[in-house]
Amino acid sequence: MVTPDNALLPAEPLSPAEREGVYRAILTRRDVRGQFRPDPVPDAVLSRVLIAAHHAPSVGFMQPWSFLLLRDAAVKRRVHDLFLTANAEAAAMFPAEQQALYRSLKLEGIMEAPINLCVTCDPDRAGPVVIGRTHIREMDEYSTVCAVQNLWLAARAEGLGVGWVSILDRDALRRTLGIPEPIVPVAYLCLGWVEGYHRQPELAAAGWRQRLPVEQVLHFDRWGGGEGAATLLDRVRDDAQAVAEGRFLDERL
After folding, report:
1. pLDDT, tens digit, 9 for 90 and up, residues 22-52
2. Is 106 in a helix, a strand, or coil?
3. CA-based nearest residue to 32, from 243, 198, 199, 204
């Protein structure tokens, strides 16, 4: 039975301008560490990016995420102290020849960003048995990451920057923020207006790692399979080159 609540929306492409906006947000989104401005983010803008996050896909429609907003400098300082401890531990894990470069990288903007946001996952939100999570238990955390990506792209569309701080001890973060068990801190984000976006990811610019060739991550019909896919492989190589040269949005849409 079709009702106004479940009637199908038209399955039509977005307009060229709308489509370009989506791809522009994806291709120019960056993990921001050091370009934050102190200007406050208006509630209207913050509300829009949170709504975008809340409309992410989720396994069994369980919507396992919660958003803990942090503006208090003292609280952010405590989290920053956790980062400093974890970052010192992390530096020691890399080979000696990489440690100096690692220590030179700015990997967070906790104190600079006007807003910090901890995105959590509640594995019990929809009960013990969840449609779609019966065989892959981690689907609730994967769903929460979808909310993070929605927020990140909406923030880019608004001209905001987002930085994901993953060098944190989860248990220590949970204690610092008073997050109860069994809630899982999934993402700690720095959010705010920025001076600009780097043309390429900062780790690529610093020489840490480069973007992989697209053909290295694309398989057909089985792992390592590529027979009969030459036409598509040529196309994605050309598109990847257009992205690298800044031509994709002008020529490919």
Report:
1. 999 999 999 999 999 999 999 999 999 999 9
2. coil
3. 198
Task: Compute the distance between CA of residue 214 and CA of residue 225 in angstroms, rounded to an integer.
Answer: 14
Q: Which CATH superfamily is domain 28-209 in?
A: NADH Oxidase (3.40.109.10)
**How many CB atoms are closer than 10 A to CB 73?**
10
| pLDDT tens by residue, 158-180 | 999 999 999 999 999 999 999 99
Please state, in angstroms and rounded to a whole number, the distance separating the CA atoms of residues 235 and 211: 18
pLDDT digits (tens, 9 = 90+) for 51-78: 999 999 999 999 999 999 999 999 999 9
- Alpha-carbon gap, residue 126 to 197, rounded angstroms: 38
DSSP string, 224-245: T--TT-HHHHHHHHHHHHHHHT
Q: Chain-wide mean pLDDT for the chain?
A: 95
Instruction: Determine contact, residues 111/163, Cβ cutoff 8 Å.
Output: no
Spans of all domains in the chain: 28-209, 211-253
Structure tokens at 230: 């030459």
